[in-house]
Design brief:
Layout (H helix, E strand, L loop, with lengths): L19 E5 L4 H12 L3 E7 L8 E4 L4 E2 L9 E4 L11 H23 L7 E7 L10 E2 L9 H11 L2 H5 L3 E7 L1 E3 L4 H11 L4 E3 L5 E2 L1 E3 H13 L5 E5 L5 E2 H12 L5 E3 L1 H14 L6 E2 L2 H5 L9 H9 L9
Parallel strand pairs: 1-2, 1-5, 2-3, 5-6, 6-8, 7-16, 8-13, 9-12, 10-15
Antiparallel strand pairs: 3-4, 11-14
Length: about 325
């Protein structure tokens, strides 16, 4: 287990709560898992909630109105920014605007607010996504790769850029470029489980598009690792080291569930049903490496897809008894 981050002696008053972490998006799929794990490890977690009034230790904010209770953020050790509207519904013009504004306006307000604090956090971990690289086919990508130009890519680029006031104020900023997070409790895997359990799962489109995934347990551990880091800054890909084509993902999930994977969803059907959202997500190909995490010594508990699926779905193989 990664130890809690250390503070330099004398930088906080003696009665200051240790290891205070503020989290936006703490009620979401990723944020709730992270908040629960941090609290169980002894961190003092403050949830930044979209409301006009929040009972302490929660913090109120309403980005569209430019409202954030900055005084409640004075002296926090770190801020983890995970707020953002889901992208998994068809993209109308109004929906795309909400996706962008929920990320960019909120991050900009947060970064400007903490930049002005008398006792700012030492670290801002701010959400991003591997969609920033665009649809890249077979190309292997890492944090040094060029970025894309479609809707998700430009949204992520602006999302990351919104952290600039914090960086300019001397706060270390880490950009969490998250891939497909595997958990039965939310995200893509939760939506796949029913058809696969019914024997109706299979590849999508050609099945050749690359999926860069990470188990929820390893995602939380990676964020803990970055919270404990003393020097990491900039973009970090939060994906496992073994991305797979969609067809392999389907056969592996079916094998873990003990079901066949003979169905196929044509690409045309995805385009018809989901439009631009489907073409930019389930049909897009992103073969991403977690180069920064590997270089900095993070060890994945479940580096292969089958290991991660078995762990997240409670299907781990037991060693034979003696």
């Amino acid at each position: 287990m990664v130890s809690a981050p250390r503070r330099t002696p004398g930088t906080r008053p003696p009665d200051y709560p240790p290891n205070r972490v503020a989290i936006t998006g703490a009620s979401g799929f990723l944020g709730s898992a992270l908040a629960a794990q941090l609290q169980s490890s002894g961190f003092a977690v403050q949830r930044v909630r979209r409301t006009q009034h929040a009972a302490s230790p929660d913090i109120a904010w309403l980005p569209p109105l430019g409202m954030l209770d900055g005084s409640a953020l004075e002296g926090v050790d770190a801020v983890v920014n995970l707020a953002g509207e889901p992208i998994s519904r068809p993209w109308t013009s109004k929906r795309k605007q909400a996706i962008r504004e929920s990320r960019i306006l909120g991050t900009s307000l947060l970064a400007r607010t903490i930049a002005q604090l008398k006792r700012p956090p030492r670290l801002l971990l701010s959400g991003s996504a591997i969609g920033i690289y665009g649809d890249r086919g077979e190309e292997e990508l890492d944090e040094s790769s060029t970025l894309g130009s479609d809707f998700l890519a430009t949204t992520a680029i602006d999302w990351e850029s919104a952290t600039e006031p914090a960086r300019q104020a001397g706060i270390r900023v880490v950009l969490l470029r998250t891939g497909v997070v595997l958990s039965p409790g939310g995200g893509a895997l939760a939506k796949m489980l029913l058809p696969f359990k019914l024997g109706l799962g299979g590849r999508i489109g050609s099945g050749q598009q690359w999926m860069s995934w990470i188990g929820l347990g390893d995602w939380v551990a990676a964020v803990r690792f970055l919270l404990a880091s003393e020097a990491t800054a900039g973009a970090v890909n939060l994906v496992a080291p073994n991305p797979v084509p969609n067809a392999e993902f389907a056969t592996t999930l079916a094998r873990v569930l003990g079901r066949p994977a003979v169905a196929r969803v044509p690409a045309a059907a995805i385009g018809l049903l989901l439009g631009e959202m489907g073409r930019s997500t389930v049909l897009a190909s992103q073969r991403i490496r977690p180069l920064r995490l590997i270089q900095e010594g993070f060890e994945f508990t479940h580096p292969t897809l089958e290991q991660a699926l078995r762990a997240e779905l409670g299907k781990e193989r037991r060693a034979p008894s003696a």
